[in-house]
Design goal:
The complex is a heterotrimer of chains A (451), B (489) and C (265).
Chain A: H1 26-64, E1 69-78, H2 81-89, H3 93-112, H4 120-123, H5 131-141, H6 143-148, E2 153-159, H7 162-169, H8 174-179, H9 185-197, E3 200-204, H10 206-210, H11 225-256, H12 261-273, H13 278-292, H14 300-325, H15 328-336, H16 341-370, H17 373-377, H18 391-397, H19 403-412, H20 416-447
Antiparallel strand pairs in A: 1-2, 1-3
Helix pairs in contact in A: 1-20, 2-3, 3-5, 11-14, 11-16, 13-14, 14-16, 15-16, 16-20, 19-20
Chain B: H1 3-28, H2 40-76, H3 80-85, H4 88-108, H5 113-118, H6 126-132, H7 143-181, H8 188-228, H9 231-236, E1 240-241, E2 249-250, H10 253-284, H11 287-302, H12 305-324, H13 341-366, H14 369-377, H15 382-411, H16 414-419, H17 437-446, H18 454-488
Antiparallel strand pairs in B: 1-2
Chain C: E1 18-27, E2 30-40, E3 45-49, H1 56-63, E4 73-81, E5 84-85, H2 93-99, E6 100-103, H3 114-125, H4 131-144, H5 148-151, H6 164-176, E7 182-186, H7 194-207, E8 212-216, H8 220-226, E9 229-234, E10 237-243, H9 244-249, H10 254-260
Parallel strand pairs in C: 3-8, 3-9, 6-7, 7-8
Antiparallel strand pairs in C: 1-2, 1-4, 4-5, 9-10
Classes of the chains: A mainly alpha (451), B mainly alpha (489), C alpha/beta (265).
């Protein structure tokens, strides 16, 4: 009884001085002030929450948008078939291409009117170390066409090195580069002049969206495309396993299950599995699918199976809610005209519950798409996704990465150029998640039925 | 016969079965579908189910049993001395690699099937041979391992052969039996429906199997771990310093401490904000405000944890260092690096806000309107009603929600892997880097450690601990919430 | 039950605790109460009767501004208590509700002890200076509600553990503890069994001496038993109001007569 407030107005208990309603007494004023404060706490709490969301989105967009632009230099290369053929016969094939690039770079400096003492090898530091391989791949892929153009000049757009790219994007400052052994101030002067001349430009980075991952020293070449395919194959597994199993389990629990211990056991299991940390599912996947069943490590099929088990509780819970929402009168109507319980369920209840089920499934898929922790344990990280899967079976069974695992991998490489990739990857991932959620909302809006 | 072909054969058989069963039933009724007990389709499905169900069951069992059987067979070929030199698991993985290498060699045409099986280590340098084909082996291939690998390939091949025979035999038997039973008076619908019911039950049982799988995989490996590392040192050790050369100290206490510390900070951020947001949304907000603010907050819950991890590592951490670091705005020099308990806890708190707010929102809404009316009718202000009537009434539910959030925080992985640091430490300074149970599970299992070493197996003991803690919290929380809901139903 | 026949037929404003003039209530676009004017006498029980959905509860709730808690509800017109307009912007609904208590259809004790249930009002309004004063308020409120004898040994047991009728009397005690001048009761017996109903009705009759009571009831018998004056509502309109015995024996309006004789409702 500590919160008894003193009220001078009350002379005897339970009898107040008659006051006019039109004047607000001191106590009421105090109470109303407390009311206003309390309400303000709520507004502040929501504002903080929304502020955090805004900060998060700002961080993602401000750090990640630049990943969609990449600096390229256009080089004019004179095709010399004899030389190219000689290159193919040598042991270190790409180094011969480096010589070609060096020449092209020196010629470029002359064209652009840039005066420099630098050798071609020195100039090449401005380019990606994968430049030679890129040109060679293109030459090999179009060998016949190239042969026909002997002696002609062809223009190749070559990626600039991540440092040059970072310098142009403002990610790396001159001072920071000065401490770096790879580029000199002289390089940056050349870069500035090339940019002014318009031969070094930032262009839209399709390779980031569609490309494959690259090794540690070539961040400018890294792309999220291969891991996107990895995620896609995993989602296929999840969709084709989790949806039918989830729906079947829900139908049983909602429509057929008798009230007994077995049913209780299933129910308890489902609600607990929904709250088991995702990393534990990773342990399960590692021990059961890889150690015990010897399925291939890092393969989307294993990732898909683990994510299926993880998503099942979500799908079952939402499917049961949709089944429950179908009024009993529908079942009674079907049973009343002689349908079996199974027919009533599959012909009437299930189709009516389908929009809700699909909405729940899409949300479950979105959740699975963004999940990272279990994928780390089954080896979908640390694997450099440098190849696209080759056909359906390869897509499921060959090692690959997945989008969130790829983002984690980039975040671990401790290089600002890869950080930019990671943020950019998050934008791609969020675009997928946003699309899926919008789809779910539209589906719900379009088919929502109120009984 | 590979798995794909078996499945294809089963598919073909079941399509034929459907057509045959259906037409046999119709013709037994003299072409008049009305004289059948069930609709014609049910007779077809009856055959399909009789063909597929038993054969697929056999196939699945076989797929589980064969690897285990082969492992024991191959293991028996390996001498005690070899095992003593390293470990059985290591030798077996060598055997597997060699066997895979031989497969590649046969496929690419470098070796004929017979030659691969007749190979002996004395005559050919197997390592160089396989190295040329892109299969890198760590050590020289001894005769023993090569023979084991050849035996492995033999058993595997014959296993696949018998698998195909058995599965197809079972399928055909089922097919024949079902066709034979097909007659116009056969109660096909009841049989099919009964079968479907069993399929539904099987699907529902997957939840149990999953739990069982989790528990078994944790228990087996944890027991293995405790065989080579004393449990008491694991549970009561205060030092965590794994060294892959052996002689590791694997005490869980520093990890548990950091896990709880980070979770505590996360809840200290999420609970007040989430709770006040929920109170405002359910008690004060106009429908328009609610329609905007609630989904906005829930977006926070839909963002993958990897995003929060990156946010902690690259945005919040550096920002905190800018303020609290050695050359920071405040000049206090509290933070040395961006990774810290506070960084991870704070970001995790942001992630948990919508979790706390939407659970609390549901729970506050479950308090009957009559309670509010009763309090307001006595002249209480809205906030007095909330503080003195609604929150006390909703308290059990809110406690349950907070426990669920705590279990979430304890099991969260990506934020702590990226934001909390990697050094295990028993410290009370929230601005120091520490590492948690989940982060160490990841690092112990993604390193290059031999799977049978205590450094890798400890991850399962950590996983077991994590599972037990979160399961306990969940069960208590779900129990409280359920009791709470029953009260107002 | 004894009837007081000293009430003035003409029902002028000179002796009126609550005066409503041209009250309109809208729920969104629905016009729920249409132009109701009424004088409610002090120290008497006034019953609002009428078929369900006629607006009697809605009108009751406008008297202590409980309708304010519903977003889409809008009230026009004037309601005066002791000649003060309760819809004046200067009036704080919190103060108003201390003066005009309310008892609801379903007993709604808070999930607290019996003691804390009754102490709730006095505490928030600061009516007691110390523990002994609070104890006194609680004892007298429970006594006035006729519950003291039944609960005095278990004041700290949860209020939700009482029987339905006891719970409702606890809610009445809770309302009395704030020492209101008017008590509004919204079908207070509809969730109770006949014996509990009889007890509550008896209580209402006793409380009449000190309070102005307005009761909404769906039971005409109950209106006849407990009230001195009765108002009949139909489709949001106040059809007629007068001495209870007059309404039941010689209604002036055809609709009242039809309702009382059981033609509809």
């Amino acid at each position: 009884m500590t919160d008894v407030t003193t009220n001078p107005a009350s002379e005897t208990p339970a009898s107040r001085k008659k006051t006019s309603l039109l004047t607000v007494d001191a106590l009421t004023r105090k109470r109303n002030a407390a009311e206003t404060r309390f309400k303000a706490y709520g507004v502040v709490a929501i504002s903080i929450g929304v502020f955090f969301l805004a900060a998060l989105l700002w961080a993602i967009l401000s750090n990640g948008m630049s990943a969609f632009q990449q600096t390229v230099v256009s080089l004019n290369i004179t095709i010399d078939v004899a030389r190219l053929e000689a290159a193919e016969k040598s042991i270190v094939k790409t180094s011969k291409y480096n010589a070609i690039i060096d020449e092209a770079l020196i010629a470029k400096m002359k064209d652009a009117g840039v005066e420099t003492e630098m050798s071609g090898k020195d100039l090449r530091k401005m380019l990606s170390s994968g430049a030679a391989a890129t040109i060679r791949d293109d030459v090999l892929a179009n060998w016949d066409a190239i042969k026909a153009r002997d002696g002609q000049v062809m223009q190749y757009d070559v990626l600039a090195s991540s440092r040059v790219d970072g310098y142009l994007k403002g990610r790396v400052t001159r001072e920071a580069l000065a401490r770096d052994k790879n580029l000199d101030a002289a390089h940056l002067d050349i870069v500035d002049q090339l940019v002014a001349k318009g031969t070094m430009v930032k262009s839209f980075n399709w390779d980031f969206i569609l490309g494959t991952d690259a090794s540690d020293n070539r961040p400018e070449q890294a792309g999220i495309g291969a891991s996107m395919l990895g995620s896609f194959y995993m989602m296929l597994v999840v969709l084709f396993l989790a949806l039918p199993i989830g729906v079947a389990a829900s139908i049983y629990l909602e429509e057929f299950a008798p009230k007994n211990r077995f049913t209780d056991l299933i129910e308890v299991n489902i609600s607990n599995l929904a709250a088991v940390p995702s990393i534990v599912f990773g342990i399960l996947g590692l021990a059961v699918f890889i150690q015990f069943m010897h399925l291939p490590q890092s393969a989307p099929i294993v990732g898909g199976l683990v994510l299926t088990l993880m998503t099942l509780p979500t799908i079952i819970i939402s499917t049961r809610a949709s089944l429950k929402a179908v009024p009993p009168s529908i079942r009674d109507a079907a049973l009343g005209i002689g349908a079996s319980k199974m027919q009533a369920t599959f012909h009437h209840v299930l189709p009516l519950a389908m929009p809700g089920i699909l909405t729940g499934t899409i949300i479950g898929l979105a959740q699975a798409l963004g999940e990272t922790a279990p994928l780390l344990l089954i080896g979908m990280v640390g694997f450099i996704a440098s190849n696209y899967p080759d056909g359906l079976a390869d897509g499921f069974f060959s090692p690959n990465s997945a989008m969130p695992a790829q983002i984690y991998e980039w975040a671990k490489r401790a290089d600002p150029a890869f950080y930019e990739r990671a943020w950019g990857g998050i934008i791609v991932l969020l675009v997928f998640l946003l699309t899926m959620n919008i789809l779910a909302i539209l589906l719900r809006r379009r088919f929502e039925r109120r009984w | 016969m590979s798995l794909g072909y078996i499945l294809l054969a089963l598919l073909v058989l079941s399509v034929i079965g459907y057509v045959l069963g259906r037409s046999k039933a119709v013709s037994s009724a003299g072409g008049d579908g009305r004289r059948l007990h069930s609709l014609p389709g049910y007779y077809g499905w009856n055959v399909v189910l009789a063909t597929l169900a038993p054969s697929l069951l056999v196939l699945v069992v076989w797929l589980f049993v064969q690897p285990a059987y082969i492992n024991t067979q191959v293991a028996s070929l390996i001498s005690q001395e070899t095992v003593a030199k390293s470990s059985l698991d290591l030798v077996l993985s060598d055997v597997l690699r060699v066997a895979d290498g031989l497969d590649v060699a046969v496929e690419s045409g470098a070796l004929s099937q017979e030659k691969a099986q007749a190979l002996s280590a004395g005559s050919v340098d197997v390592r160089a041979l396989l190295g040329d084909l892109g299969v890198a082996l760590a050590s020289e291939v001894t005769d023993e391992i090569l023979h084991a690998a050849q035996a492995y390939r033999d058993i595997n091949a014959s296993g696949e052969f018998y698998r195909a025979i058995l599965v197809l035999a079972v399928a055909i038997a089922g097919f024949a039996l079902a066709i034979a039973r097909t007659h116009k008076d056969f109660r096909a619908r009841n049989v099919v429906e009964q079968a479907i019911k069993w399929i539904l039950i099987a699907a529902a049982s997957i939840a149990i199997l999953t739990t069982l799988g989790i528990i078994l995989s944790l228990i087996f490996n944890t027991v293995e771990f405790f065989k080579i590392y004393p449990a008491s040192e694991f549970f009561f050790g205060t030092v965590w310093s794994p060294s892959f050369g052996g002689g590791s100290e694997l005490g869980i206490l520093p990890l548990i401490w950091a896990t709880l510390y980070i979770s505590f900070i996360a809840l200290a951020v999420a609970v007040p904000i989430g709770l006040f947001a929920a109170i405002y949304l359910s008690e004060y907000a106009t429908p328009a405000v609610r329609a905007i603010a609630k989904p906005l907050l829930e977006v926070l819950a839909g963002i993958p944890t990897i995003v929060y991890g990156l946010f902690a590592l690259l945005t919040v951490g550096p920002l905190l260092v800018d303020v609290l670091g050695n050359d920071g705005l405040l000049g206090v020099g509290w933070m040395q690096g961006a990774s810290s308990v506070f960084t991870a806890g704070f970001v995790m708190g942001i992630m948990l806000i919508p979790f706390v707010s939407s659970l609390s929102d549901d729970i506050i809404n479950a308090v009957p309107q009559a309670m509010r009316d009763g309090s307001l009718g006595l002249g209480a202000t809205h906030s007095e009603t909330v503080k003195q009537v609604i929150l006390p009434a909703a308290l059990p539910g809110i406690v349950g929600a907070i426990l669920l959030a705590a279990s979430r925080a304890i099991g969260e992985t990506m934020i702590v892997v990226l934001g909390a640091g990697a050094a295990a430490r028993l410290s009370v300074n929230p601005f120091e880097a520490m590492t948690t149970v989940t982060a160490k599970i990841v690092s112990q299992l993604t390193g290059d450690a031999d799977f049978a070493s205590p450094e890798a197996l400890v991850a399962f003991a950590l996983g077991m601990t994590l599972f037990v803690i979160t399961l306990g919290l969940n069960i208590i929380a779900l129990y409280i919430v359920r009791k709470y809901r029953e009260q107002y139903d | 039950m004894n009837k007081i026949s000293s009430f003035d037929e003409t029902n002028d404003m000179t002796d009126s605790k609550i005066t409503a003039r041209n009250v309109q209530v809208y729920y969104g676009d629905t016009h729920a109460i249409k132009d109701v004017s009424i004088n409610i006498k002090p120290q008497a029980v006034t019953a609002f009767i009428g078929p369900s959905g006629c607006g009697k509860s809605t009108f009751l709730r406008t008297i202590n501004r409980m309708n304010d808690t519903i977003d889409i509800c809008r009230v026009e017109g004037k309601i005066l208590i002791d000649d003060e307009d309760i819809y004046d912007p200067k009036v704080d609904p919190v103060q108003l509700r201390a003066k005009v208590g309310m008892v609801f259809q379903k007993p709604n004790p808070f999930p607290k002890s019996i003691y804390d249930n009754v102490a709730y009002g006095p505490r928030i309004h600061g009516l007691a200076r110390n523990k002994s004063e609070l104890d006194e308020i609680i004892e007298s409120s429970l006594q006035k509600a006729g519950l003291w004898a039944e609960v005095k040994d278990r004041l700290h047991a949860p209020g939700t553990g009482l029987s339905g009728g006891q719970q409702q009397r606890l809610c009445i005690a809770r309302a009395i503890a704030v020492s209101p001048e008017v008590i509004l009761m919204d079908e207070p017996c509809s969730a109770l069994d006949p014996i509990a109903t009889a007890k509550v009705e008896e209580l209402i009759d006793e409380l009449r001496e000190n309070y102005t009571i307005v009761i909404v009831t769906h039971s005409m018998q109950q209106a006849a038993r407990v009230s001195q004056r009765t108002a009949f509502f139909h489709l949001g309109v106040l059809v007629e109001e007068g001495l209870t015995q007059d309404i039941f024996t010689s209604p002036r309006d055809k609709r009242t007569e039809d309702y009382i004789t059981g033609r509809f409702g």
